## 1
Amino acid sequence: MNALDTITHRAGQLQPRIAVVLGSGWGGLTEHIVDAIQIPYTELDGFPQPTVAGHGGTLWLGRIGTQPVAVMSGRQHGYESGAVDGMAVPLRTLQALGCHTLVQTNAAGSVRPDMPPHSLMLITDHLNLPQRSPLVGQAGNDRFVNMVNAYDSELHRLAARVAKGQGATLFEGIYAWFLGPQFETPAEIRMAQRLGADAVGMSTVPETILARHLGLRVLALSMITNFGAGMSSETLSHAHTLSQAQEGSARASRLLADILAALP
Ligand code: HPA
């Protein structure tokens, strides 16, 4: 059975309208899902398959407030195999299921001295620094996707309003994609600053391109887990990213749940 048939069968009456991708630190969102149905990616053809036993992803279906959602806990990164189209089948499947909006989350490094760890940032635009595209090899004129307003300004105004209502500070900025998996050099962080970036990370951009190709509206949020390399004395590591993300997780997930519930 293909992934769409599997999900449709398991979803029953539920018709998800918002697709969500959870990055590091955002896993707490699943606690806000009611009537949750969980489908491991191992049951979904074309979804990212675990490379380490017990570390697979899960698709969650359910409601947040009254909003029917499909939440992907676990994404494929470009640094895993070099391919940057690992999220093509999942996003196409969720669009075919009826989703019209993609909400993305990630952990990122700040390159702005005034945006410290534990800040939350709405992504307003991106820099595709590796200049890799998940659309390479596609045919047809719709591959020439317009990337103006790729991060939907109406959705991000709505998210900013929800944050203000909660008394939460939400920065806005430009996300620069680095392929990874190594962290940046201090010289690369200075380059990103000069190019106008506010945050750096290793995900999100390929999915935004795929989503725009599919006609999905995109909203994206970064949780800042560290300053960019060379900006502070801390040593960057994956463990450091995860521990910082854990600390901010509950607050970020609550904000995200309220934003999801308020989306059109
Ligand atoms: N660089 C790249 N990706 C990241 C970082 C960083 O500093 N922090 C969290 N994800």
## 2
Amino acid sequence: MSDIDTVLVLNAGSSSLKYQLVQPDSGFVVAHGVVERIGESQGRVDLIRGDEVNEFVGEIVDHEAGLSKVFELFSGVGHDLESEGITAVGHRVVHGGPQFYRPTVVDDALIDAIKDLETLAPLHNPVNLLGIEATRRLLPDVPSVVVFDTAYFHGLPEHVATYAIDRELAREHHIRRYGFHGTSHQYVSTRTAEFLDADLEDLNQIVLHLGNGASASAIAGGRPVETSMGLTPLEGLVMGTRSGDIDPGVVMYLRRAAGLDVDEIDVVLNRQSGLKGLCGENDFRSLIEMVSGGDPDATLAYNVYIHRLRKYVGAYMVTLGRTDTIVFTAGVGENNAKVRADALAGLENFGIVVDAVRNATRSREPRIISTDDSAVTVLVVPTNEELAIARQSVEALS
Ligand code: AMP
């Protein structure tokens, strides 16, 4: 048995399951991988451990079958999970509703409560639960902890969390702005303070989490005071397949004019909108290639994306009053220098000056990309939601 504790972190999607076995103290990733195309005849599982890659290709009927394949791959390379010192399984669950804002140890009551939250997050919570239920069956002796994506934003000021709609209706149905990607916003803002050797309490930060899903937050002295996602992860920035902000009148109009029912509108706004809706492509790398090739739809999509991002940066600078840092993170934010440059271009009068050479330099480490005399420090800080979930899981159990 290993004398170094590890946590297995799971992020279950509808047809995929990402996992990471991580040492919470050091952040060392013992192994990681993904189960893909669950429910299809040609699924795939991989296990990456250092330079070693082990793979299974074949039918994976459900999440539990996928997870047991992962365990088989572990033992196939002589490392059953027990010998890895596994002390907990940490699960990402998207929506904690009004009642869950701390990492919570899994028991039957929690599972029932997450089921009750399904109407708030029909696309996410049920699939997150599949991962939890599979783990409980396959690893009955290892405690599971749920870390909610909404938790960090639980303390948003009331006037920020409140929609201006009928208050009775809102109360009855728990309609408010919850915010998502909380684990990432919290991790990245904390990591930024560490990297700058500053106190989190002294910094006013804007964090831009730009991945396939995208969200912005304003964090004043370590407390989130604004975020772009709302009741669901649909509000806010333009995303890979999600519209972000639209006039809610569009929903009624689609019902009346296009005859779509509510589930069809859900699919349109969550899966067929955003960059994909505008140009047919939601992967940012491919989108950039299309823009370079002069594709007019991709160019418009890119411009809509950047315009929305700039609107949020402006709004959050005013919300904060004084902005010390603007931090880019997640797949696009960490890797795409053009997005970072365009999002903050021409803002010298606001004290924001991105350095072209620093911005173009690639690294996996936190780094400053603004000039030395920029009043606002602009950074790229890689997110690490898995490590944050692992650490919070250990804390919840201690
Ligand atoms: P995430 O949801 O954080 O995994 O981010 C996914 C998005 O990041 C996709 O749109 C990818 O195209 C984009 N992305 C990942 N790697 C790169 C890269 N090296 N350059 C540009 N975009 C990237």
## 3
Amino acid sequence: MALSGNGDNFRARRKRMMEAIAPGATAVMPSAPVAVRSGDVEFVYRQDSDFYYLTGFTEPESVAVLSPGHPDGEFVMFVRPRDKERETWTGRRAGVEGAMLEYGADKAYVIDELEKILPRYLEKSDRVHYPLGLNEKLDERVLKLIRWAHTMRPRTGTGPSSIIDPRDIIHEARVKKEPAELEAMRRAMAISAEAHKRAMMKARGGMGEWQIEAEIDYAFRSNGATGPSYPSIVASGPNAATLHYINNDREMRTGELLLIDAGAEYDFYAADITRTSPIGARFTGLQRSLYEIVLDAQLKAIDAVKPGAHFDAPHEVALRVLVDGMRQLGILHGSADEIIEKGAYQRYYMHRTGHWLGMDVHDVGLYRVDGASRVLEPGMVLTVEPGLYICADDENVPESFRGQGIRIEDDVLVTADGHEVMTAATPKSIADVEALTTAQ
Ligand code: GLY
Ligand code: MN
Ligand code: MN
């Protein structure tokens, strides 16, 4: 059951979009292209986030047109036709009638009529909003029509003289989440919490990382998620020091650390959670020391999330705590200021502390405005994910430190008076993690 698929939400978003481009402009939005996996097999289709945000429509080979004030209708859709035979193979299509009745289009046409119908909208517009490069096949068709409408300009006095990327407007809208969007995200996060708990409980020495990936997939799908919102990272021992390790093909050993970065997608919205736990055991003294540094950095960074604070604030806080911790453990030497200024910490902490989260795991929206780190506002959701990574071949540290990685990642909503950790149901205190890793 879709949470964000309420017609009113989509209508309100289109209305805001039309207000932003009016008067004298038309927006043409392509659906995501179909991607071939191999031979005649396609990847499972996933609609473009911006297209879904405005329409709620999940079928490929579609185009949505927003043309404020146009006498023939302001919201027009081009879709695949109904086709009894094709639908027997690949499932129901909404068709032209469905686009109007179920998705609120004022007018709808089959996609093959694009060349015939779209010029009616383009020739009345001074500007066309179109995201070039998203769907190359469609780019060719739309650009041809725009060029044609442009050549009519001297005669008609109208017709587009500029192509503008509509994504700036849509992405700014997407940065601040509506209640229905937050609801879908909460579902994705609740399902992800179950997956992480299951993984910590199941992971034991002698098992393969792939088996834990399968447990995560099971938890996602059996609880109603579409699947993972990005490839799950199940990284044991030294693999955890590879940031985007997704092979998940190593046999795990009891007592090693296991870093799992996995989040479900529910109704087009993502969760993004990382936990690190000792496989089938309690933390060793050294693991505990490293874990406590990362946890302390994360908790203090989360505290820095509030309206009016800058997006970079959590990163700056986390970095300070990580550097102090590494100095105390003898991993880094010198003053904290010097280490930060020279970037000496980057050997062990090489990524930023967070990113926007929403329909996309690395969600859209500006991080800097007018040259400065963006000010946080209620409704924004960001991840807070500090980590420490020590490569297996790092000869600057004692051998016992080498070949491990720790990251702790939560999803945090900026609220009117501070923040809410939306992923708080995923255990991260040492006691709560060990209760699962040592459960019989
Ligand atoms: N899972 C990707 C990230 O944490 O940014
Ligand atoms: Mn993340
Ligand atoms: Mn992540």
